[in-house]
Design brief:
- The longest helix is centred in the first third of the chain and has 41 residues, at 142-182.
- The strands form five sheets. This protein has a five-stranded antiparallel beta sheet. A four-stranded antiparallel beta sheet has the order 4-3-6-7. The chain has a three-stranded mixed beta sheet with strand order 5-1-8, with no helix packed on it.
- It is α+β, with helices and mostly antiparallel strands and 498 residues long.
- 39% of the residues lie in helices and 18% in strands.
- The radius of gyration is 57 Å and the shape is elongated.
């Protein structure tokens, strides 16, 4: 409205200026106005009119006027008549020899063009000579000249006013377009990463929006986007985006809410802001989800993230059930691990230890005082390792066929020695029938299990037989495999008895 009022005031001022210019032009003397004589083309007027307008009859100088008049008449006899009495000459009425294809003087014998230009019935305008134009100019009254100048000025003023009006209208149109866009909601897209989320069956992601629009108005609201980051509509402006709470997937999955905030500028409809604003929502362990997280997700789902309050309630129940099931499973696992730890824990009168996890359920034990034997399954005749406590200063000799596999100093004057068969070497040789004094013979499945247990499943029987030991046998290499493993998993667990 302000721009329209200013435009009306400017138009009124232009009209007033034009009127003042027209009134003042009658008072302009010829000496104050410079004319280009060659550029004025006017009609002849009677000499008496020029005399009556220019000066009084008593002030006329006869000699000069008569001379001018005689010159005018003499030249007028040699020139075409005035505009009103001039005879119209048509090109097609000229004789053939007078056509536009005449030979030009000075060009010698240049060939003439046979074709003529057909001009139709267009009359050729008469062009006054310089002398005639000067006479006509002198005959023109000052009043008429002033009127002509006033006309030119008026045309210029009208043209200028029209140009200004057009430009002002264009400016107003542009301003109206900008103002309209400033009040048009723009759809924008952000980046979202949430594994397994389908907002058509789960709830949408609540996005907290705060900032200032193009009108300078403050904005603080929650909008919702799908798993592709679509759904936000804002007026042009500068905003800060953040994730308000977790969505709820159809299976009850609750996501970890990122704490990042991103500033964006909305300029146009359909703008993709994913390069500036991308939020990653990770899936935590279900048993770690809290009631507060579920309640917050359900609140936003009910307020706009889900299709209805009833749908939000169903999703909340799914999230609670999923969390509770995970908590129960973890509790059961911990209880079982505790029972297993108790079963794996062994103690003598001098030391205690834990059976390796890899061995648990596959071995059994027997003990006698400070001696503890760990054997395969239910076969007490197939020991994996035997532990014996020896006082410092005393020597230790393993049973026949066994090898010392390692030792652990208790720090109380005793050392625990671990000994047993080197199964990675003994078993392949026994199967091949090449050992002179085999401990015993083993079925293939037993042989494979013995090799795997004594190497911690790091090598298979085939690798032991074909690559590490070979047909010729290599007791040192096979022994190192077993001693290294026991030194890592069994010996560190041997501690002094409390």
């Amino acid at each position: 409205m302000k721009d329209e009022t200013m435009g009306q005031e400017d138009a009124a001022q232009d009209a007033e200026a034009c009127a003042e210019a027209l009134e003042s032009l009658d008072r302009i003397s010829l000496d104050e106005i410079a004319f280009d004589d060659s550029g004025v083309d006017v009609q002849d007027e009677p000499e008496t009119e020029a005399q009556s307008d220019d000066q009084d009859a008593g002030d006329v100088e006869p000699a000069e006027d008569e001379a001018d008049h005689e010159d005018t008449e003499s030249e007028a006899g040699n020139q075409p008549e005035s505009d009103t009495g001039e005879e119209t000459v048509l090109l097609d009425s000229l004789p053939a020899e007078d056509s536009l294809t005449r030979e030009l003087p000075g060009l010698g014998s240049a060939p003439a063009v046979d074709e003529t230009i057909a001009m139709g019935d267009i009359p050729l305008p008469s062009v006054p000579s310089a002398r005639e134009a000067e006479v006509r100019h002198r005959k023109m009254s000052p009043k008429r000249r002033n009127l002509m100048v006033a006309g030119v000025v008026a045309v210029a003023l009208v043209a200028g006013g029209a140009g200004y009006a057009a430009w002002n209208g264009y400016q107003q149109e542009q301003a109206a377009t900008v103002a309209a866009n400033a009040h048009t909601m723009m759809s924008v897209q952000i980046g979202v990463q949430a594994a397994g989320l389908d907002c058509s069956t789960g709830s949408k992601i609540p996005v907290q929006v705060s900032g200032q629009d193009s009108d300078g108005s403050s904005v603080s609201e929650t909008l919702y986007v799908d798993e592709h980051g679509r759904g936000i509509k804002l007026l042009p402006g500068d905003y800060t985006l953040s994730i308000a709470a977790s969505p709820i997937a159809a299976d009850g999955t609750i996501y970890t809410v990122p704490t990042t905030k991103t500033q964006v500028t909305v300029k146009s409809d359909g703008q993709d802001l994913s390069a500036q604003a991308t939020f990653k929502l990770k899936v935590p362990s279900a048993d770690t989800v809290t009631d507060d997280q579920i309640d917050a997700a359900a609140k936003y789902a009910e307020e706009g993230g889900a299709s209805s309050a009833a749908a939000a309630k169903v999703l909340q129940q799914a999230a609670t059930a999923r969390r509770d099931a995970a908590v129960n499973a973890v509790s059961a696992q911990k209880a079982q691990a505790s029972r297993d730890a108790d079963a794996r824990h062994k103690a003598t009168d001098l030391y205690q230890l834990d059976i390796p996890v890899e061995w648990y359920g596959k071995v059994a034990t027997w003990q006698n005082g400070s001696t503890l034997c760990i054997y395969l399954g239910d076969d007490a005749n197939t020991p994996l390792v035997t532990l014996v406590a020896v006082r410092e200063g005393e020597s230790f000799t393993p049973d026949e066929g066994d090898t010392v596999l390692g030792a652990a100093n208790l720090g109380n004057g005793y050392t625990v020695y671990a000994s047993g068969p080197v199964y990675p070497y003994v078993v392949p040789q026994t199967i091949n029938g090449r050992t002179q004094n085999p401990v015993s013979t083993y079925p293939m499945d037993t042989a494979i299990e013995l090799v795997e247990l004594t190497t911690g499943n790091r090598y298979t029987y085939s690798q032991i037989k074909n690559d590490l030991v070979g047909k010729d046998g290599n007791a040192d290499a096979a022994t190192k495999l077993e001693t290294d493993y026991l030194a890592q998993i069994l010996l560190p667990s041997i501690k002094t008895q409390d």
